[in-house]
Write a structure and sequence with these properties.
Helices cover 72% and strands 0% of the residues. By secondary structure, it is an all-alpha fold. It has one domain. α4 crosses α8 and α5 crosses α6. It is globular, with a radius of gyration of 16 Å. The chain starts with 11 loop residues before the first helix and ends with a helix.
Length: 174
């Protein structure tokens, strides 16, 4: 679905000139010509690892909420500028979803059942799967909310599902 826009195609130049576009594309990662969502999830991993490995849950939750609200704003602006509410170059939603997918099993289980790299890998794979498949309520949000809120929320739900599934996988394995 298209929305009112300046019809400016995503480019390195436009991203570097706008804080909203820079954040929405996660510092240009969303401009990847192949699999920008996966590129965004992978690019989120260093930040995600730092947050969930070194910070307490409350601090990570506050940073995650800030990223979510910044994501709503930047995704809205990018969607308007690029003429498509959920343009492929918008990947800040993957950053927040990946944070949830990783933080949930780490904070719930700690490193008792699996090493941190295993949790990171499982959360990446399961998040990408749930982000692509769009399990309820992500599918509903994706179809009915064509704005920054919808862009962010469908990945929040994918991240929640992925986090729960990673916990289940780890519990089944051990």
């Amino acid at each position: 679905m298209t929305i009112s826009s300046d019809n400016t195609a995503p480019s390195v130049r436009s991203v570097l000139r706008s804080p909203a576009l820079l954040l929405a594309s996660w510092f240009g990662v969303g401009l990847s010509p192949r699999a920008p969502g996966t590129a965004g999830s992978i690019a989120a991993l260093p930040l995600v690892a730092l947050l969930v490995y070194y910070l307490p849950v409350v601090t990570t939750a506050i940073i995650g909420l800030l990223l979510f609200f910044v994501g709503v704003w930047s995704a809205s602006e990018a969607g308007r500028r690029w003429g498509q509410a959920d343009h492929g170059a918008i990947v800040i939603d993957e950053v927040v979803g990946q944070l949830l997918a990783t933080a949930i099993p780490v904070y719930v289980l700690g490193d008792v059942l699996a090493s941190f790299p295993v949790v990171i890998l499982l959360s990446l794979v399961t998040f990408r799967l749930f982000d692509i498949v769009k399990v309820w309520p992500a599918d509903y949000v994706d179809k009915h909310s064509k704005n920054g809120w919808g862009v962010m929320l469908d990945d929040v739900f994918a991240g929640l599902w992925a986090g729960v599934v990673v916990i289940a996988l780890l519990l089944m394995t051990y």
